Amino acid sequence: MADEKTLVCPDCGKDIEVLAACGAKSYFCNHCNELKSSARVRAANPALFPEQKD
Fold first, then answer.
1. Rounded distance, CA 34 to CA 22, Å?
2. H-helix or E-strand containing 44?
3. How many separate domains does the chain show?
4. Is 9 within 8 Å of 16 (Cβ atoms)?
5. Residue 54 in domain
6. Could you tell me the pTM of the whole model?
7. Which of 21, 48, 52, 54 gets the most CB atoms within 10 Å of its CB?
8. Looking at the record's lineage, which domain of life comes first (predicted)?
């Protein structure tokens, strides 16, 4: 399933999987075999998370 907006792991740079359930999103790296912090994923992929203006 090729997605043109692919998120990368902030640690290893490999693609990460987005797990969505009940309105929440979790980010999992199959290479590191661990969940990643959403803040770190946003920081590693700034083009895919435009800044929200309050």
1. 20
2. helix 38-44
3. 1
4. yes
5. no
6. 0.79
7. 48
8. Bacteria
